[in-house]
Each structure stands twice: as structure tokens, then as C-alpha cells.
Amino acid sequence: MSLKTKKIPAKRTKTISEKTFSEFFAGIGLVREGLVRTGWRCVYANDISAKKQQAYEARFGVDEHFHLHDITDANAVVTRMPGQPFLATASFPCVDLSLAGNYRGLAGKESSTFFGFIDVVKSLGSRQPQVIMVENVTGLLTSRGGEDFADAVRALSKLGYWLDAFVLDASHFTPQSRPRVFIIAVLSHLKPVEKARAGWLWPPQTLSPLRSAAIMRAKRDIELETGWVEFELPNPPSLQIQLKDVIAVGDDQAWWSEHEVLRHYAMMSDLHRGQVDKIVASKADWTGTIFRRIREGQMRAEVRFDGIAGCLRTPKGGSAKQIVISIRSGRMKMRWMSPAEYAALQGVPDFPLVGSEIQQLWGFADAVCVPAIEWIDQQVLTPLYEQGLKSIKPERKKSFA
Where, by residue number, is the active site (predicted)? Predict the structure, then answer.
């Protein structure tokens, strides 16, 4: 595939001093939590939720960094932003990329705020970040037949960024199924030259857990004004902790009544009920999770038997809340998963819990898995920062000492 001749934005000033970043759609701050552990310093955070700001500031303190403001007001955001952070992160709303948002995609009220972020970056002019990390659900890859993903990466490309994309699942780090697509965008001087192409070769020589056939097809089919790159990424690590290490099973938990347990037991399919019966009969200790789903017009209690929790979801209703099922010495118990367990499954067991329980569940479910962010930082973001420092002439670098 040939690259059409189009005007590329002017080369940005390679001004790098501190390891700084700005986070957009900051939520309760779990992207920041993952980055500050390796020396990144947040200089600006933006979100529109006052309740999430409350949790964010309970963890990081009240300072001038958090800007409670609508991101679509680009002028106000840019005016508030200090300097030229090296990195910007954007975990924009996913609701319109799923059934909950009727699959409206990037045209939906919530998910369309991605373009508010694009307007902010464009308005920064010479202060544009040299690296951008965008995060969202894997539905971004398929929304509107892949057109939303294409629109997103083309918007970044028009600003002068070269792009890579991959899918990373939180289940490599915590016992939670949470695959997310990450887009890494870099200005021209940071792209890995040997891995940069205007188009993308097909078929790929290898597929990995990070770059599926869907990712590689997108690289083949989506034409950018800049191009695609591919960062060298190892396979993610194997999970080192189990669900039973995260879930509390003591009698002091808010276990349901026997009536409620039996009601949910009756909601199970014959297959799931049979598997539960075998565990009960074995007298083995076992911990699992349940989601309630409508299947063929009936409410079903669907049990996970693979040792990991389902993806944490914002508690918009009973079907979105995750249920803990614990079997000990032949006795079956159930309850709602707690905010503390949500925090642990996102990799932050000591994160402060503020506000109502619903507020806490919402904040953690509408966030990222911290160890996954740490891994991306170690493999991509910090190496890019170090590469950026090396790209500056010694005399210029000295002026920032």
C-alpha cells in the first residue's frame, strides 16, 4: 500500500527536561498511580466528575494539578496546562463503544469526547506532547465495523504522530479479565525507524497475545498521513496471584441470606449448577465470581470457573455488579464484591476508599489496571523518554539542568 502525499504538521520542538505527563479523563488517578512509581511527575489532570476528583485527591492530595472542567472547552484546558509535558494519556469514555451505549461509537455523547482531547492537543501547538497513550475497551477496534478505530488513529496521525497499537489484558497481572486496547502515538523523531512503514506488510510474520489479527488487519487497511510503527514488546508475564488471594472469605463479610443464595443457584444453567454441585460435594475450598445475564429472555447467574474475576464494570444495575461465590467445606455462600476487592483487582489494594459504596465501585470499575500501566511504562514509555533525552544536543540538554 502506497502512502499518499499529504501535508504533515511541522516538526515539533524537541524540548525535554523533566519526566512529566498530563492525564486526560483522569478519573480517580490509576494511570497516574502506575506512572509515578517509575518517576513520572503529573503536571496536569483533567476530568469532569467531581466525585472522581474526590477520590483522586484523597490519594494524591489537593493541588493545582486537577482541573475539573469539560475537555471539549479546549481553550480553557490549554490555558490551564503548564509547559510542555513529554507524555499525555487519554482513557476516554467507553460507554458508546458497547451495548450500554447502543454502539453509537465515537459519535455518541460520551465517547465523542475523544475528539475534545484531539482538539486540546492540536491547540497546544508547539507544546504538543511528544508521546500520547490512548486506552479503551477492545470494542474500539470493531465499533462501526472498525471505522471508529480508523477515525481515532487518523485524527492522531493528522497531528503528526506515528502510531502503534496493541491489546493488553489485566489478567497477566491481577486475577481479572480486562483486555484493553492501547494506542501509542509518537512524534517523528521518536519513531523506531527500522519498524516504521507507511503501510503494513500482510500477512504478518507472527501474531502475539498483544497484536492480534484484528490489530494487524487494521495496520494493513488504515492509511495514515504519517504511518504505523511497531515497538518491540515481550510477551506479558504469567499471573502470579490467584483470585483467592484477593477475595475475603471470612464470616465478617456481608454474605447473603440462604434464600438469596438459593435464588441465584436456581438461576444457573444446568451446566454451571452441575459444576458447582461437584465442588460442594468434594468439600474443597473454592472461590469464584458470578455475573447476572439475560439469556433467551431469562435471568441467568453465570459462574466463572477459570480462577479469575470478570471484567469490573460500572454499577449501573444489578447485572453490572459482580458477585462473589465462596464454597468452604461443602457450604456455598454468596455476596456482592466489595470496593476493597475492586481496588485489589485493579492492583491498588491500599487505595483510599472515599464517598458512597456505589461511588467507590464506579471509580475503580471506570479505571485502568495499575500493573498493566506499569508494564507499558517499563516497555515503552520510559524507554521513549530516555530516547528523547538522547536526541537532544548536549548544549541544549545542559540548559535544563
Answer: 94
